[in-house]
């Protein structure tokens, strides 16, 4: 499979349409010839992943994605496979009509899907229903077909985009194909890398179909995938003062664990010093569990002021609460105007009392917190995670890490990166506290807010993948601390890096 050096680049649907039009001109070929290339790439993927399969069923829509499917049927039969063809309509349009005619002229039969139709038995199903063209809920008949494919329990190969998944946003309006493998064509689609896409794309492959790299680079990508990185080796002449002093602020009654995790992850990510300002009742336990954390009890703003003077970076919010104690510390910390990572109740307080930041600031909301920051529902955030992340960054003048499957990193100017790592085992308490500490430690070591957010999100997710090698269920936030240290020092080879 040919992959561009620019395969990190992710595009919107409008950009992809322009790229495809430019590709036809640059290659000097017709639409059906480009479809033939897509079909050939699809057959190669099919054979590579399921070499024993002999009977496939291809499901075609009326547009170009369906055309890819019809030509795949032609090539598959020529390769000796048994092929059943299911179509949503009795005819196709545009270039897809040419592809359909090629299938029918070779005595290929087509089953038209309707209320009486029954899904053919096959070892493998191929989704060629909609591709990038669908940005709404499928109709009743396509929905029934999608559900039937999903329920059949056979492997599924999706061509370009799993049907029902929004290629722009990574959301699903209704039913969507759950593919085992998706082979996407020409260039990366941003919606295949975040949100609901995690449950629908499966293994993702990019087949460029021979399109020159210059065609894709002519359109500036809307977003990019993060790459695996670590901090450079330290100078031999170094001391703890060279690597910053992180002050973690939070831990109201009953929430000492949040500041413990944030503080320890800041240490493991390389901060020279880490202090914790918390409830006095937590200090003994924190000092006993991790003596390297300099924990001190604070009963209000005056007690916090002396610690703020010594800190170079603040990690504000883990276990903070929204009552009078937490609110007072929040106000005092923000007024110090230090480089800042804001999470958890620090974000909930920001939603109640908005402000724009002037010091380097990273906000790390999950979708619920993002909704409160924007005054919308969690569902609206998840409907378009890209727009939500960019709007929070613009509104609060901060770098944003919108957490979740395919975490997004956005800055106030609209730049956006997508994290390709992480797993559902990380859906457990304390994971966000770890991220807060990691990003704060990177800020303390001299990273910009943008660098700290991207590198921090990547290290956090990669450590989660490495820790999940023993299983996702039951993964604890503290399980990430050892791999975090290794990855931060560039010790790779323990997890799947997406370079």
TrEMBL record:
Key words, A-Z: ATP-binding, Isomerase, Kinase, Lyase, Metal-binding, Multifunctional enzyme, NAD, NADP, Nucleotide-binding, Potassium, Transferase
Xref: Pfam families: Carb_kinase, YjeF_N
One term of GO molecular function: ATP binding
Similarity field: Belongs to the NnrE/AIBP family.
Highest taxon, organism lineage: Bacteria
PANTHER family named in the record: ATP-DEPENDENT (S)-NAD(P)H-HYDRATE DEHYDRATASE, ATP-DEPENDENT (S)-NAD(P)H-HYDRATE DEHYDRATASE FAMILY MEMBER
UniProt-annotated binding residues for K(+): 65, 127, 163
Binding, (6S)-NADPHX: 64-68, 131-137, 160, 258, 319, 366, 433
Protein name: Bifunctional NAD(P)H-hydrate repair enzyme
Gene that specifies this protein: nnrE
Free-text remark on how the cofactor is bound: Binds 1 potassium ion per subunit.
Stored Gene3D superfamilies: 3.40.1190.20, YjeF N-terminal domain
Positions that bind AMP: 403-407, 432
Assembly description: Homotetramer.
Record PROSITE patterns: YJEF_C_3, YJEF_N
Domain YjeF C-terminal as annotated: residue spans: 223-491
Cofactor: K(+); Mg(2+)
EC number: 4.2.1.136, 5.1.99.6
Main function: Catalyzes the epimerization of the S- and R-forms of NAD(P)HX, a damaged form of NAD(P)H that is a result of enzymatic or heat-dependent hydration. This is a prerequisite for the S-specific NAD(P)H-hydrate dehydratase to allow the repair of both epimers of NAD(P)HX.
């Amino acid at each position: 499979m040919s992959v561009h050096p620019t395969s990190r680049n992710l595009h919107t649907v409008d950009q992809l349409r322009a790229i495809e039009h430019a590709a036809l001109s640059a290659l000097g070929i017709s639409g059906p010839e480009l479809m033939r290339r897509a079909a050939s790439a699809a057959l190669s993927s099919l054979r590579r992943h399921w070499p024993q399969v002999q009977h496939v069923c291809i499901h075609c829509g009326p547009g170009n994605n369906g055309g890819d499917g019809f030509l795949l049927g032609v090539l598959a039969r020529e390769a000796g496979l048994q092929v059943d063809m299911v179509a949503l309509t009795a005819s196709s349009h545009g270039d897809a009509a040419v592809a359909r005619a090629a299938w029918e002229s070779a005595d290929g039969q087509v089953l038209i899907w309707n209320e009486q139709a029954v899904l053919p038995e096959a070892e493998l199903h191929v989704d060629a229903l909609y591709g990038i063209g669908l940005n709404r809920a499928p109709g009743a008949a396509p929905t029934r077909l999608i559900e039937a494919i999903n329920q059949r329990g056979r492997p599924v190969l999706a061509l370009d985009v799993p049907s029902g998944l929004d290629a722009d946003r990574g959301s699903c309006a209704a039913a969507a194909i759950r593919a085992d493998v998706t082979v996407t064509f020409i260039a990366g689609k941003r919606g295949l890398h975040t949100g609901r896409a995690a449950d629908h794309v499966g293994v993702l492959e990019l087949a460029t179909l021979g399109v020159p790299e210059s065609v894709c680079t002519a359109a500036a990508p809307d977003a990019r995938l993060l790459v695996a990185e670590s901090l450079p080796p330290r100078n031999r002449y170094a001391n703890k003062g060279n690597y910053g002093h992180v002050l973690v602020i939070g831990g109201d009654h009953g929430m000492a664990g949040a500041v413990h995790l944030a503080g320890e992850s800041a240490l493991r990510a390389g901060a020279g010093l880490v202090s914790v300002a918390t409830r006095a009742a937590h200090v003994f336990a924190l000092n006993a569990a991790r003596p390297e954390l300099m924990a001190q009890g604070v009963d209000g703003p005056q007690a916090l002021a002396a610690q703020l003077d010594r800190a170079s970076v603040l990690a504000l919010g883990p276990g903070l609460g929204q009552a009078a104690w937490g609110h007072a510390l929040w106000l005092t910390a923000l007024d110090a105007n230090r480089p800042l990572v804001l999470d958890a109740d620090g974000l909930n307080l920001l939603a109640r009392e908005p402000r724009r930041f002037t010091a380097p600031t990273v906000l790390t909301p999950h979708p619920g917190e993002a909704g409160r920051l924007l005054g919308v529902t969690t569902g609206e955030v998840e409907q378009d995670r890209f727009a939500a992340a960019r709007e929070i960054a613009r509104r609060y003048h901060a770098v944003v890490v919108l957490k979740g499957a395919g975490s997004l990193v956005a800055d106030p100017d609209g730049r956006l990166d997508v994290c390709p790592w992480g797993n559902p085992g990380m859906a457990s308490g304390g994971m966000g506290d770890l991220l807060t500490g990691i990003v704060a430690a990177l800020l303390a070591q001299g990273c910009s807010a943008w660098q700290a957010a991207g590198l921090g999100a990547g290290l956090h997710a990669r450590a989660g993948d490495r820790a999940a090698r023993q299983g996702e269920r039951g993964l604890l936030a503290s399980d990430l601390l050892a791999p975090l240290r290794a990855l931060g020092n560039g010790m790779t080879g323990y997890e799947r890096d997406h370079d």
